[in-house]
Amino acid sequence: MGLRPNGTATISFGLVSIPVNLFSASESKAAISFNMLHDEDHARVKQQLVCTKDGETVERDHIVKGYEFEKGQYVVFTPEELKAIEEQSNQIMEITEFVPLAKIDPVYFDKGYYLSPGKGGDKAYRLLAKAMTETGRCGLAKYAARGKQYLVVVRPVTGHEGGLMMQQLNYADEIRSFADVEIPEGDVKDAELKLAIMLTDQIATDEFHPENYKDEVKERVEALIRQKIDGQEISEVKPEAPKTQVIDLMEALKASLAARGGRRKEAASAPAKPERKPAVHALREELAQKATLRVVGNGKKSR
């Protein structure tokens, strides 16, 4: 089953226009959350909107929006005025310049969207993708949507020849300056640098494999929730005490190299492990199955 587009747009560069469909490149995996319940009957509780001046509960049809221009001073806007203020979405990504992708610091990257050619845009889409792949450049563009103007980059999709994606960028004034981070001055000794490079070489790889990394914290929480559902108590596990810090940097580097070398020998001699099943987050399915027909004390089945 193919992805459903989040929207449509038109890439414009020069006199060339390319209709495209937008697909979110990432899928947000909701974190495990706990609901607030009444301790007496375990019913969900709801939050209310309360006026900070008189303490009265305010219904939503009495809520208006305002902007605080001075401490405690607001100017109120009507829905019509708010609509007039919003940036109008024209769905046009007008490329203003092409720059080397390697020259954009990753700190600017934000949410990404895959692009597919819209009706009649196949040829121009493939041409733009090929041109940017050959030159190593990407297109910087402005894009207005959802009441905001975005700075975006249109670039080839890594590992998928002929594909394009749009990446939202942070504006320069949204990025904090590293100059505000205090770094103490000091020298790096050649011998220490040599050992540090050896250590990085030991664990270096030529490619990034994101599938090798999983949210272990979420998996642990899911396992504990299953224990609780099965009637087991959950007790706090004290974290391991921090290991004694090695003050001598050279000794720490040497010890790290020796430890890595030992683990490599063990891994080479150990039998192959069976492939680990992916931790598919089927907790809710499992819980639903358990709750579908549960035998209660009187022998009746209830949902």
Structure, explained:
It is a single chain. With 303 residues, this protein is of the alpha+beta class. It has a domain at 7-28 and 88-174: Ku70, Chain: A, Domain 2 (Beta Barrel), CATH 2.40.290. Helix content is 26%, strand content 24%. The chain has helices at residues 79-85, 122-135, 190-202, 216-229, 249-269, 283-292; strands at residues 7-13, 16-24, 65-70, 73-77, 92-100, 109-117, 137-145, 148-156, 164-169, 294-295, 301-302. A 7-stranded mixed barrel has the order 1-2-6-9-8-7-5. Helix 3 packs parallel to helix 5 (249-269). The longest helix has 21 residues, at 249-269. The protein is extended, with a radius of gyration of 28 Å. Mean pLDDT is 82; it is low at 275-281 and 292-303.
Q: Can you tell me the CATH class of the domain at 7-28 and 88-174?
A: Mainly Beta
List the uncertain runs. 275-281, 292-303
CATH topology of the domain at 7-28 and 88-174: Ku70, Chain: A, Domain 2
CA-based shape = extended
Helix content: 25-40%
Give a quick account of the main beta sheet: strands, pairing sense, barrel closure. 7 strands, mixed, barrel
Output the strand order for the largest sheet: 1-2-6-9-8-7-5
Rounded to an integer, what's the Rg over CA atoms? 28 Å
How much of the polypeptide forms β-strand, as a percent range? 15-25%
Distance between the termini: 32 Å
Order of helices and strands: EEEEHEEHEEEHHHHEE
The CATH architecture of the domain at 7-28 and 88-174 is: Beta Barrel
Would you count the extended β strands for me? 11
Class by SSE composition: alpha+beta
DSSP helix count?
6
Mean pLDDT: 82
